[in-house]
């Protein structure tokens, strides 16, 4: 990471804390590694991102419905899914620093360094070696690669490594009033299995016909040993997933369709298309016959924000075998019974949140020949902004606060708005810029005379005068979801 990109990332992290978006969890107790709390503005932004995903996934698609399954599930679910036996990362310890690392990530970091140093041939060869070792589950080879390329511990600077071992990422706990006889259960490491075990419930009660999808937003938990890069990799995180059930033999057609559809969804946020790329998986999960990541170019490089996977019929067949219940669909069009194949779209809400912050945070130099000036602004798409409008009386007297409060009462029925009368109007504008509020509504003495207001726009800083009678429609049009959603139809 260059100093410029490092500074940008530090700026995003500090801005998120300073303005109430993200706080370290349990901070008064010095925090808890890889766990974060979303503050008052962060909670609003997260909810708006969920709304955008839910509207585009469920509301726009007649054949996709949403559920909300429990975090705790029967232990056999995770045995059937393969998580009990195979949900692991290759870990390696440095004997001097006593720190543990993911072996593949150490090697990936080395590949990035080779690329930055212009050693593309070395980078390509190392990537091939890594892919081969991962595909073969060759843990000794991973250690050999680390030693061959002189990869050192970032803390101790030494190469005193242990062997590479697999580490299961699931959190286990006990369910029951007494320790004796309590049943071991797991905090779910993904939300997808809650969809699969409810496949028949949804299909029958919703009278769903293939192809159809089931969507869900929910928390997942992974005991990540290596937690880094702020909210990119956390132990408690939120997923937005959709499982799309299709007729066997048509899965690649639907896989390609959802691959294109999901990238289109990200670009509708207004981000630069150059900051996105597809990354096809070389090593496929045990359940998949195709997989691709949509990656975003964060200040620290390209990282996955969403995965699209062709999961075949693995999950439903496994649950059918372990539960003894048939999980099949009778297709009247071809007069045939079968276990459907599945296309999955899975997006990390926390990573999407960080994508939005990184893309929206702008430092603007507003200096002129007469004076030096600058501002920090979050240029969120208006529907996603945590606060939709700020109502600002020009002064604290002459009936202006009363009029401003009247307007506030009118708008807060439909929108999250703020009232602010402290400091100069310029300072109040800057405060709203910093939290991404699309417009500021200024109530002044002219408002009392002709019932008009000044609208100051965040991005352009231009101002216009409108009638109070037109304000509700003006704000509703500004923050409407329709322009974003129409890009997806």
Automatic annotation (TrEMBL):
Read off the InterPro entries from this record.
aa-tRNA-synt_IIb (IPR002314), aa-tRNA-synth_II (IPR006195), aa-tRNA-synth_II/BPL/LPL (IPR045864), Anticodon-bd (IPR004154), Anticodon-bd_dom_sf (IPR036621), Gly-tRNA_synthase/POLG2 (IPR027031), Gly_tRNA_ligase_bac (IPR022961), GlyRS-like_core (IPR033731)
Q: Which domain of life is it from?
A: Bacteria
Which processes are annotated in GO (biological process)?
A: diadenosine tetraphosphate biosynthetic process; glycyl-tRNA aminoacylation
**GO function term, MF aspect, one:** bis(5'-nucleosyl)-tetraphosphatase (asymmetrical) activity
State the compartments where it is located: Cytoplasm
| Reactions catalysed, as given in the entry | tRNA(Gly) + glycine + ATP = glycyl-tRNA(Gly) + AMP + diphosphate
| Pfam families recorded | HGTP_anticodon, tRNA-synt_2b
Q: Which UniProt keywords apply?
A: Aminoacyl-tRNA synthetase, ATP-binding, Cytoplasm, Ligase, Nucleotide-binding, Protein biosynthesis
- Residues binding ATP are 222-224, 232-237, 304-305, 348-351
Q: Which residues form the Aminoacyl-transfer RNA synthetases class-II family profile domain?
A: 138-393
Query: According to the UniProt entry, what is the EC number of this protein?
Result: 6.1.1.14
Binding locations of substrate = 102, 190, 237-241, 344-348
Q: Where does it sit, as one GO cellular component term?
A: extracellular exosome
Q: Which SUPFAM superfamilies match?
A: Class II aaRS ABD-related (SSF52954), Class II aaRS and biotin synthetases (SSF55681)
Q: Which Gene3D superfamilies does this UniProt record tie to the protein?
A: 3.30.40.230, Anticodon-binding domain (3.40.50.800), Bira Bifunctional Protein, Domain 2 (3.30.930.10)
Q: Does the keyword Translocase apply?
A: no
User: What is said about its interaction partners and assembly?
Assistant: Homodimer.
Sum up the protein's function in the record's words: Catalyzes the attachment of glycine to tRNA(Gly).
Which family does the similarity line name? Belongs to the class-II aminoacyl-tRNA synthetase family.
Annotated protein name in UniProt: Glycine--tRNA ligase
- Taxonomic source organism: Rhinopithecimicrobium faecis
Phylogenetic lineage: Bacteria, Pseudomonadati, Bacteroidota, Sphingobacteriia, Sphingobacteriales
**What's the encoding gene here?**
glyQS
């Amino acid at each position: 990471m260059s100093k410029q990109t490092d500074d940008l990332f530090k700026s995003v992290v500090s801005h998120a804390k300073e303005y109430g978006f993200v706080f370290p969890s349990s901070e008064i107790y010095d925090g808890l590694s890889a766990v974060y709390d979303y503050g008052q503005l962060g909670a609003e932004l997260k909810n708006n991102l969920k709304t955008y995903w839910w509207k585009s996934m469920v509301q726009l698609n007649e054949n996709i419905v949403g559920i909300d399954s429990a975090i705790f599930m029967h232990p056999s679910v995770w045995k059937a899914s393969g998580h009990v036996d195979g949900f692991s990362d290759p870990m390696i310890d440095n004997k001097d620093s006593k720190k543990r690392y993911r072996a593949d990530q150490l090697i990936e970091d080395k590949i990035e360094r080779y690329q930055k140093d212009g050693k593309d041939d070395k980078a390509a060869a190392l990537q091939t070696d890594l892919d081969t070792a991962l595909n073969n589950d060759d843990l000794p080879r991973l250690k050999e690669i680390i030693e061959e390329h002189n990869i050192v511990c970032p803390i101790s600077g030494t190469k005193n490594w242990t062997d590479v071992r697999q580490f299961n990422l699931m959190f286990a706990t006990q369910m029951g009033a007494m320790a004796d006889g309590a049943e071991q259960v797991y905090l779910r490491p993904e939300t997808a299995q809650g969809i699969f075990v409810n496949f028949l419930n949804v299909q029958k009660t919703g009278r769903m016909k293939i192809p159809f999808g089931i969507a869900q937003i929910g928390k997942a938990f992974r005991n990540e040993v290596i937690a880094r890069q702020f909210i990119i990799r956390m132990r408690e995180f939120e997923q937005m997933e959709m499982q799309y059930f299709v007729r066997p033999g048509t899965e690649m057609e639907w896989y390609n369709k959802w691959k294109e559809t999901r990238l289109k969804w990200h670009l509708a946020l207004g981000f630069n298309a150059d900051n996105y790329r597809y990354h096809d998986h070389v090593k496929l999960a045990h359940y998949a016959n195709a997989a691709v990541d949509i990656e975003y170019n964060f200040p620290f490089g390209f990282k996955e924000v969403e995965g699209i996977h062709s999961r075949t019929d693995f999950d439903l067949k496994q649950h059918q075998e372990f539960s003894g219940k048939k999980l099949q669909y009778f297709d009247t069009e071809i007069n045939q019974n079968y276990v459907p194949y599945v296309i999955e779209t899975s997006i990390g809400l926390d990573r999407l949140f960080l994508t939005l912050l990184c893309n929206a945070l702008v430092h603007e130099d507003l200096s002129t020949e007469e004076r030096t000036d600058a501002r920090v602004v979050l240029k969120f798409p208006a529907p996603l902004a945590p606060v939709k409008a700020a109502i600002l009386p020009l002064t604290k007297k002459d009936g202006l606060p009363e009029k401003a409060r009247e307007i506030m009462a009118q708008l807060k029925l439909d929108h999250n708005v703020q009232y602010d009368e402290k400091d100069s109007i310029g300072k109040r504008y800057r405060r709203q810029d910093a939290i991404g509020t699309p417009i500021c509504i200024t109530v002044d003495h002219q408002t009392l005379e002709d019932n008009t207001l000044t609208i100051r726009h965040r991005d352009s800083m231009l101002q216009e005068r409108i009638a109070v009678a037109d304000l509700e429609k003006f704000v509703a049009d500004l923050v409407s979801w329709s322009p974003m959603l129409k890009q997806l139809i």
